[in-house]
Design brief:
The complex is a heterodimer of chains A (245) and B (299). Chain A is of the alpha/beta class and 245 residues long. Chain A has nine helices and five strands. The longest helix of chain A is centred in the middle third of the chain and has 15 residues. Chain A is globular and about 45 Å long. Chain B folds into two domains: 155 residues, Thiamin diphosphate (ThDP)-binding fold, Pyr/PP domains (Rossmann fold), CATH 3.40.50; 127 residues, Rossmann fold (3-Layer(aba) Sandwich), CATH 3.40.50. Helix content of chain B is 36%, strand content 21%. A seven-stranded mixed sheet of chain B has the order 2-1-3-4-6-5-10, sandwiched between helices. Chain B is globular and about 60 Å long. Classes of the chains: A alpha/beta (245), B alpha/beta (299).
């Protein structure tokens, strides 16, 4: 493809193909494509040339699996040249199957092992409230519904609810991929700890932008559940547990 | 004399007061002792409750925000329980923090295995870039904590309630070993609070005694510069053999013999006092005398 300087959402499949080499994409990568695009296109106060500024919004990709969508969006927004995408996974490439913050411009944390991002986001939100000049920037942390299996998240969900960094926004992409599911909806785990929660279908970009970018109530961290298409789940039927849909 | 833990609270409280970059992350352990500091600096003293994985993650986030986090708990719950958070949230992210532990190997003798962590430094050795201090006296705790907080790197400060009768500063504060006694029949390196029992064990012998309150980085230069007969005993209040890697690397170019003394790799299943545990592991003066005497051929 020809390398442009302004990209639209419709251009992202082409950028993804630079990494996968064909038109088939990893479902883990595709489930996050909508929300990542909306974040970088319409919500986050961070641009390629402000990526080092202290006042920038912070986006932490906790769910480091399938980062191709993340890399495609960062390239589309000019954090690094799209040509770099075609080196994906090579020994000398900055891009691999889990992102490394020391290698990729714009990447705030290295991730891959699940259940690390939210605690870091809580600390970052608390720390920025101390160090920011003027209003503290917002901190967004993107997780997956299966990532919530990791107990470390439940430590962090409770702590955030109590210490209430109200500049903190958690995003859970829910493609119903957790082996045993979350009866009553995963947002119940957050709501019980004092979070504001809202659920938005991943294809509704205007609603996503509104819910991700809007103000949260004072004293409450905010959860946006992004509902993506469900994944088949054999273990859940084996255990007799219900599917989401 | 003030204990290492009390000295930590005193010095840390002062650092929080003096330096707005300093932060403290707790998981309930010692939290009551820091209540006055928390009231004065609520944004920089964070108690996460009994959530040790989150304790390390929060410290990483504070570091990303430009603060200098100090993280504190029992060694078991500071290093072993959240080990992957230390590996990834601090090590892989390349973020700085100061980890300050208590209890270590057998200070919590009466509490049993759950509160003992002789392998903590061996574990941290698998993560690049940690400086490791084992102060042998409360006055060294004060100096090493100030030095650690003033820096930017990853530091492990392992406090013990076992203490030498006097502090040793000088070269130790700069990370090097201190020559406590010079001799010709061999060298004994005494780490942290093992210096007094090592001195008592070797008082009649013509051996070099080096004192180390800092073991990572390992001060090969002082060891080689004072080395007589190349027979070296490493006496550390850690899992036996913890420092054998850097020690044998330092001596790789000459024929030598090594004797590691430390906490035995066994489930002791005993309570009692720290002194009884030291004796059980051969780390009291008598046990050290027997082991060093046999190794060096001294009666």
């Amino acid at each position: 493809m020809t390398m442009k300087t302004v990209f639209r959402f419709e251009d992202l499949p082409g950028l993804l193909s630079l990494m996968s080499g064909d038109e088939k994409h990893d479902p883990a990568a595709l489930s996050t494509l909508d929300v990542l695009w909306v974040l970088y296109d319409r919500v986050l106060d961070v641009l390629a040339d402000t990526a080092g500024e202290r006042a920038r919004d912070r986006f932490l990709l906790s769910k480091g699996h399938g980062p191709q969508a993340y890399f495609a969006v960062l390239a589309a927004k000019g954090f690094f040249p799209p040509e770099v995408l075609s080196s994906f996974g090579r020994f000398d490439s900055p891009l691999g199957y889990h992102p490394d913050r020391l290698l990729v411009p714009g990447v705030e944390i290295s991730s891959g092992s699940l259940g690390h991002g939210l605690a870091i986001a809580v600390g970052l939100a608390l720390g920025l409230a101390e160090t920011a000049e003027g209003g503290a920037p917002r901190v967004f942390c993107l997780m997956g519904d299966a990532e919530l299996d990791e107990g470390s998240n439940h430590e962090a969900i409770a702590l955030a609810g109590r210490l209430a960094p109200d500049r903190l926004r958690a995003i859970v992409v829910d493609n119903d991929s957790s082996s045993y599911g979350w009866p009553g909806g995963l947002e119940g785990r957050f709501a019980a700890e004092g979070w504001e929660t809202v659920r938005v279908p991943s294809s509704e970009h205007d609603a996503l932008a509104l819910e991700l970018g809007g103000p949260s109530s004072p004293g409450a961290p905010r959860l946006v559940v992004v509902e993506a298409s469900s994944k088949d789940n054999s273990w859940r039927s084996l255990a007799g547990a219900p599917s989401r849909n | 004399m003030v204990s290492s833990r009390v000295q930590f609270v005193t010095t840390m409280t002062e650092l929080l007061e003096r330096d707005k970059r300093t932060a403290l992350v707790l998981a309930d352990i010692s939290a009551d002792r820091f209540l006055p500091a928390a009231r004065r600096h609520p944004g920089r003293v964070v108690n996460v409750g009994i959530r040790e994985q989150t304790m390390i993650g929060v410290a990483a986030g504070l570091s990303l925000a430009g603060l200098r986090p100090v993280v504190h708990s029992y060694a078991s719950f500071l290093v072993e329980r959240p080990f992957e958070q230390i590996k990834l949230d601090l090590g892989h992210q390349d973020l700085g923090a100061v980890l300050v532990s208590i209890a270590g190997s057998y200070d919590a003798s009466g509490e049993g295995r759950t509160h003992q962590s002789p392998a903590d430094v061996a574990l941290l050795d698998t993560i690049p870039g940690f400086t490791v201090h084992l102060p042998g006296h409360a006055a060294e705790v004060d100096a090493l904590l100030r030095q650690a907080v003033a820096g930017n790197g990853r530091v492990y400060l392992r406090l013990s309630e076992r203490s030498n009768h006097q502090p040793w500063h000088g070269a130790g504060a700069a990370g090097g070993m201190t020559v406590v006694r010079a001799g010709s029949l061999g060298t004994v390196i005494a780490v942290g609070p093992l210096l007094d029992p090592v001195l008592a064990a070797t008082e009649l012998w013509d051996v070099t005694v080096l004192y180390a309150s800092t073991i990572r980085p390992f001060d090969s230069a002082t060891l080689l510069g004072t080395l007589g007969r190349p027979d070296v005993v490493m006496a550390e209040p850690l899992l036996r053999g913890t420092s054998l890697g850097p020690l044998s690397a330092a001596l790789a170019h000459i024929p030598h013999r090594l004797l590691p003394l430390g906490v035995a790799d066994v489930e002791l299943r005993r309570y009692g006092t720290p002194g009884q545990h030291a004796a059980a592991h051969g780390l009291d003066a008598r046990g050290i005398r027997e082991a060093v005497g046999a190794f060096l051929g001294l009666a």
